[in-house]
Write a structure and sequence with these properties.
Blueprint lengths: L1 E3 L1 H8 L11 H11 L3 E5 L7 E10 L2 E6 L3 E2 L6 H11 L6 E9 L2 H9 L13 E6 L8 H11 L4 E5 L4 H18 L8 H7 L5 E7 L5 E10 L2 E9 L1 H5 L2 H16 L4 E3 L11 H8 L4 E12 L4 H12 L6
Parallel strand pairs: 4-6, 11-12
Antiparallel strand pairs: 1-2, 2-3, 3-4, 3-5, 6-13, 7-12, 7-13, 8-9, 9-10, 10-11
Helix pairs in contact: 2-7, 3-4, 5-9
Amino acid sequence: MEQITKEEFFSLTKRFSYIPFTQSEGFWCMHSIERADRFVFFINNKELPQIGCMAYVTSFFNKKMLQIEGECLLSKTIEEELIYNFYEEITKTGYDFIEINSSLQYNTNYEIGIRRAGYLRPVGLFSTTLSILVDLTKPIEYDKNWQKNSKKAENQNLSFRTITNPIKDDFQDYLLMEGELKHRKKFHNGLSTVQQLEALFFKNEFFLFFVENEQKQRVAGMIIHTHNSRAISVYSVTTKEGRAVSASFFLRKKMFSYLAECKNIKDCDMGRISPSSSQKNNLYLFKNGVKGEHIVYNGEWSWYKRRLYRPLMYFVKKYLFKRTEV
């Protein structure tokens, strides 16, 4: 395993079959605006690259933590020894904490390899491992709620817009809708500046879609990432006016058609689902109305230099980082 430069990383991985959006160059551009020096890059072998990742370095209480949001793979065929060797080598890089969150579809070889490398599931989980994969090569089935709302949307004279070369005005429109969403749902995560969006769209890896109502007002938006034949929903927003005309249902259906017919995309990941007993279950019901395949990601794994750090890290993530358990 070798630590390499950013330029080497994106050059070596550009032909890999699997690159999650969290390992894309656009994602790096967006998150490096404030602290580009916080990122480090690893590859198993520069001569024969098979697996690699970029990671974010953070510090607290005089300790260093490495955060890895997924990994890039040359082949989707997961080999136990590859996972074991790569992640075991990362434990030797001098960090006190290593936190991994893999969105690669669950594989037993992955779990065996990473456990052999010394990683365990963290004390508490803060991201769901569930999602829905929609096969775009065949007709998509929808539940009764989707059928009802789709019919409603079709009678509203809505328009679907694909923004292939977004400009500042497009980003501002998206952020206005997201601001309304944050206010309504009382959360603070997500996108916040035009500069972030300009950086995210620096490479042709992400796509922006809008729905406009009869008055040409943008009432829903979505950002997706594509790589090879797979797409994933990354961010989505709907305004109060959009909810009244079922714009989110209209947007998803049109987006599925566009990806299949214009981009030759075969699968679309709905971007995690969170079944719940709370109001959050509404988002799950919305996504689950598309009859796709329920899948599980490899999810969260942790390695700690000392055993004591394992329970302490739970309190750091929950109370210092303000994360919500799932």
